[in-house]
Amino acid sequence: MTEAETAFYIRVGKQKLQDEIDFQVRLHADTVVSIMNAPMGPYLKKGQKYPYKLNEYLSNEPKKKNDVSAHDWARQLVAAGDAMMDVVEQHEKSIRKCRR
Question: What gap in Å lies between CA 25 and CA 48, rounded to an integer?
Answer without folding.
Answer: 27
